[in-house]
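REQUEST FORM: STRUCTURE PREDICTION
Request ID: SP-0412
Submitted by: Lab K.M.
Chain count: 1
Length (residues): 378
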Amino acid sequence: MKKHAKNQHQNQLRYLHKISHKRIDPPALTGTTPLPQVVEEAFLSYNAGRLREACRLFTTKLLNEKTTVGLALSGALTPAGLGISCLVPLVEAGFIDWMISTGANLYHDTHFALGMDMHQSRPGLDDLELRKNQVIRIYDIVFDYENLLGTDRFYRVLCRGDAFQKTFGTAEFHHLVGKYLSAREDDAGPKHRSLVAAAYRCGVPIFTSSPGDSSIGMNLAALQLDGSKLRIDPLRDVNQSAAIVWDAKRSGRSGVFILGGGSPKNFLLQTEPQIQEVLGLDEAGHDYFLQVTDARPDTGGLSGATPQEAMTWGKVDPDMLPDTVTCYLDSTVFLPLLTCYALAAHPPRKPKRLMDRLGDLTTRLEKAYAANRKKRKD
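STATUS: Completed
RESULT:
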């Protein structure tokens, strides 16, 4: 019996070591411990453990030179300064290759490019008093109502110009807006404050999945009433975003980095069903999946849907499920930590400049689809 018990215990230990990442025995932190070391040595379990796994997945797999990184951006992150502190540095380091964003994040990003101020405050303010004093609130962020009026004027004046009198996909529209915002930063300074301007300089396409659902879209709608020929074609976005992923999988791998959920998450992930299910092309799904969310999966909403569930739709390659991480955390906490970790752990990547090649990539997808249709008919 003793020999049997000993063998059983050895088997238990072998199994334990098989599933163990490492023994929990962290060193004591000090006031000078570098942040990447804090993440590695103190973020061991629970959602801290998932944050560490997310940082590792991002730097070791998503930032591989042959991986194309798509970012889905939701929540009011740019008005909180996270565009300036995190997203602009990530774009300029070549760590983000293309994006899907809510229009609101891009609209509020424009405040900073125009030299308008946003202010930290606190939750629980008297909203009636704010209204009387024409102060706008986003939870604990406050700013002058003139920020909205001034930004509205900027878009209406800019988009009346001849360069805007045609039909755009949203990536094409934001790229042209970014050209003017970048020039404004060059002339008036300071630089490196606008995500849209940084994306323009680095050739990073920014799509908006719901172009009418923001103050930018509202102003474009008003211009249409004035006779503007500017039109936004969201179906062009579907094909252009799918073309980016199609090219990524032909030449390497595709990684998705999702902050929050909602429509940007779905628009980023639906590129694979568009390729497989709708266009009928041979594909298996995105290779790497990293999401930060506070949404639960049991409510049935897309924001909380797991990568395993996404796999059933063809959105995630089933063979790559081990390379997926969902971190249940507020994006405003996660993103600064990830940014510091990634910039310390990985050298800058050469920008892929997908915006410069967007037309060619879409043509390649069109040809693949046409060839597939012809093959089916034959």
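NOTES: The longest helix spans residues 358-377.
Reviewed by: T.R.
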